[in-house]
Amino acid sequence: MIFKNIKPIIDNWDPIDLLPYSPNDEYDDETSWIANQVEGKNADEIAQIIFDVFSSLFNHGVFQKSLDECRTIALKILSTLSMI
Q1: Tens-digit pLDDT profile for the chain (84 aa)?
Q2: What is the CATH code for 2-81?
Q3: Which residues contact 78 (CB under 8 A, 6 or more apart)?
Q4: Which one, 15, 19, 24, 38, has the greatest CB density within 10 A?
Q5: What is the domain partition of the chain in residue ranges?
């Protein structure tokens, strides 16, 4: 359920700019890893999770988003999860 609700947020964010050229499930693994860790976390913790997931899977030259930008996405995730 969490995955389904945050997938559109991650896909719309498109942190690596891959979706115009990649399959619709491009970020599903990353989204799944994030979804499995967000429950009970605050925005700063979720931002760090997002940052860590993408940083570990894509080198710094590819993933160039800041922790602040990840926090914006974390807030969107929290907002979405509060409606479940």
Answers
A1: 999 999 999 999 999 999 988 999 999 999 999 999 999 999 999 999 999 999 999 877 899 999 999 999 999 999 999 886
A2: 1.10.340
A3: 42, 43, 46
A4: 15
A5: 2-81
Alpha carbons 1 and 15: distance in angstroms, whole number: 22
Report residue 66: phi and psi, to 5°.
-90, 165
3-state secondary structure 13-68: HCCCCCCCCCCCCCCHHHHHHHHCCCCCCCHHHHHHHHHHHHHHHCCCCCCCCCHH
Tell me the one-letter amino acid at 11: D
C-alpha count within 13 angstroms, C-beta hemisphere, residue 55: 10
